[in-house]
Amino acid sequence: MKYALYLGCTIQTEQYGCEISARETLPRLGVELVDMVGTSCCGFPAFSSLSTLGWWYLSARNIAIAEGQGLDMLALCNGCYESLVQTKHNLDEDSNLKAFINDKLSKEGLEYKGDSKIVHPISLLHDIIGVESIGEKVKKPLEGLKLASHPGCHAIRPSLLGMPDKAEHPEKLDTLLKALGAGTMDYPEKTDCCGSMLASTAASTTLTITAEKLKAVEGYGFDGLVTTCPFCFQMFDGRQEEINDMIDFLLDTDSDEVELPVFYYTQLLGLAMGLKPDRLGLQLNMSPVDRILDKIEEGPNR
Amino acid sequence: MTGKTEDREVEFISLMLQRAVSEMAAEVCEQCGKCASGCPVSRHMEDFNPRRIIAKVALGRIEELLKSEEIWTCTSCMKCKERCPENISPYDVILVLRNMAVRAGLPHPESYDQTIEAVVDNGVTQEPLTVRTRTGERHDRSSLSLNPIDKPQDMEEFKEVLLSIVEAGKPR
């Protein structure tokens, strides 16, 4: 299993825990990650809003680089994944668009052909590697933990693009958590948005949407929230403190603060493999993950 | 065969609009409200409602939409697109309206312009940030043993091509 690793902006410039934990764990499952050379932003959401053609150009350009390497492309970020898959769909359906984009790409010696697949981490882990192979690598099962899965919008919608999991009843991330020995359960807000795309236009509504989901998950008695998406992670983990500073305002009621640990799936995968938290970028999680780390370190029979 | 970028830009945006709203001329949207009922923004902001946006498009009230703030407050969660029983996608309609508003020289979020400027100049939305740990230690990519970020190799060529697309059709 060999993939061109497409990281995009958010992971490479601030969500380092996502990259570190993916690079640390995926090769242990037999995945060879090949770095890409010459990539750029995928174009979402600024270009999709202001210059859709620029968006398709950027995404096609990144796919063309993976095609030049002769590899399928692993896109860790949900925003990038959706951009790449939507663009691929458009170019494969519309030969005029493909010709236009290729004319532009030729100036950098690139060509979009359409033969590289775009792969999401949930598909890679669940469908390609498989839960059995993951289970075999578990040295420290996450027993006694009940974790909420948050696949994120762009891992499940729109289903017409053939997304990694079902739009209304996604289960793969739950299955992947069970493979690590953790408990999960379905919850009504599972498919709800993290709110991140409103950050630039409706700052407090963004945080209200995030806060509502955090409160709901905590209210169901989950020990933590798990995602693979850097945008969602940034909202739930990175902005939890800011949410707590204004939680009564955001939820328009007297509310206790949220104390919900948030993880990248690959961080938990690494912990279950017996890797130390610092090797998985867990020192960078801003949510209160320490009690969970202690619990995993002690093992289930404490 | 590819023609001037400007013409192609107009052609593709027209095509997007056509695809996004073509069926609505036949009043396919029943205003059932499934889009709005699933919308995370409508729940909090009275001014945003995907069902109403579709109604306005069907009634030809495009200019009003282009000048409104509401087309800029979609989270792109795509529940509306997923759940519409008539396969109308308010999300895609909103994207087209945003593209049209920019080309009409109407107000839009500055942050998007800034992001586009950054990508045109550097290939990425921002330079790598220094982050902190829970205990307040500061880290950058190199202190975390991560390689420098990947960027376009010939930045001048990248910039020229991307600008030719982004600027196409925009008011001068």
Write a short abstract of this structure.
The complex is a heterodimer of chains A (302) and B (172). Chain A is of the alpha/beta class. Chain A has helices at 8-13, 16-25, 46-50, 52-68, 78-93, 95-105, 121-129, 131-136, 172-179, 203-219, 230-238, 240-245, 247-251, 265-272, 290-298, and strands at residues 2-6, 32-35, 72-75, 118-119, 147-149, 224-227, 262-264.
Secondary-structure blueprint of this entry?
The complex is a heterodimer of chains A (302) and B (172).
Chain A: E1 2-6, H1 8-13, H2 16-25, E2 32-35, H3 46-50, H4 52-68, E3 72-75, H5 78-93, H6 95-105, E4 118-119, H7 121-129, H8 131-136, E5 147-149, H9 172-179, H10 203-219, E6 224-227, H11 230-238, H12 240-245, H13 247-251, E7 262-264, H14 265-272, H15 290-298
Chain B: H1 5-21, H2 34-38, H3 50-58, H4 62-66, H5 79-83, H6 90-103, H7 110-122, E1 131-132, E2 138-139, H8 155-166
Antiparallel strand pairs in B: 1-2
Helix pairs in contact in B: 1-6, 3-6
